[in-house]
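Sat 14:20. Reprocessing the chain from the morning session after the first attempt stalled halfway. Input below, unchanged.
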Amino acid sequence: MENKRKNVLVIGSGISGINAAALLERSGVAVSLFDSNDKLVIDDIKRKFMEETSVDIYVGELPRNVMDTLDEAVLSPGVPIDNPLVTELRDKGVRITGEIELAYEYSKGDVLAITGTNGKTTTTTLVGEICSNYSKVKGGETFVVGNIGNPYTAIASDTRDDSIVVAEISSFQLETTDSFRPKVSAILNITPDHLNRHYTMENYVSVKERIALRQTKDDVIVLNYDDAYTRDFGTRTDCRVIYFTRKDYEGARSEGCDVLHMDGDMIMYNDMDVIDVNDMLLIGTHNYENVMAAIGMTSAYGVPMDMIRDTIRTFKAVEHRIEYVRTVGGVDYYNDSKGTNPDAAIKGIKAMKKRTVLIGGGFDKKSSYDEWIESFDGKVKKLVLLGQTADKIAECAREHGFNDIEMVSSMEEAVKRSSELAEDGEAVLLSPACASWGMFNNYEERGRIFKDLVNGLEE
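Finished this time. Tokens:
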């Protein structure tokens, strides 16, 4: 592509920022990298680059003379678009974009993109596995990128015309997209989340819908008919709609769209049997929705149904999402650290078949916990709470008549106390309903620490 960029600032020194800066540098752009955390060491940031770099790095405060030379700023997902520095740059006429938009402009091939409040990682991983199997047959290569942990910018230069990019896209990443146009997209569901960043539900919904901003009638979007927000969007989008539903096949069909739906234990595509859920390794009704979305996306892209079906049969749950860890003393332990909001945590509870000691709490994203507490429905034996939201959740639980609560100060204490409370034939579930920040770097670290502690329990 013709490079029209001259002086670009990347904001954020995490994995997304480092890879965005490296991509720009390889492209011959004059690039600077800035992080507002004045405790960071510039030499440590430089060591994050895979090869020697000439990127100018600034921490704490960005020099005024650097600001005056910029024509573009690339935001890492963790940088809000209303950040004071970003606002000032925008007012100066600097183009504001993000790492997804940047990577898309430099990459080739087809993009299949997934967003939604919950289920993104499982669906993205499954779509990636199906497409990878397809690539082996038709040629080319599949890359799985985005919010799943592998920056799109890290592989953009490696893509070719026959590449498939399967991307998990968060609301933070969608805020800064413009030309981004997936061939097939999906919005799995929309429930309240990240309102500390987006402020209102209307803003949050609008940002999620940006995944289809540039899609046309030649493209496809897969939507959840059981979700009021995504069902409504299906009537407004310009692209071809495929719905999936567990509850209202006739309603979805009345929209004149192709529909994936449940008939007992059978997942069907219109009138065609696809797969019996008893033949899958994934458990839980939320995963049936994820599978339906994956079928809709990959079949729309042209993957043969037999290949889709065979991949689903052997597909296992992703790490940190209702992940079985170990059975100790007759107690099953599950890691659902990716349950970072109440709606995701509700799905974790619903997937449990046994009486459960539940570990919850963490960073406060201004969520409401009422529906989560109501979902306990006699299944939760004890609620073990830690983190910033512990008192808030405990108060909410008591308002709903749930008083079996214990407060702890660390994950170590949470696992130890849960192991004492759970009895033979019961389960312990880490499903926090909150983000991990404040106590852990991310939900992955939280989940790994939980698993290490469980694996250290004596029989």
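The mean pLDDT is 94.
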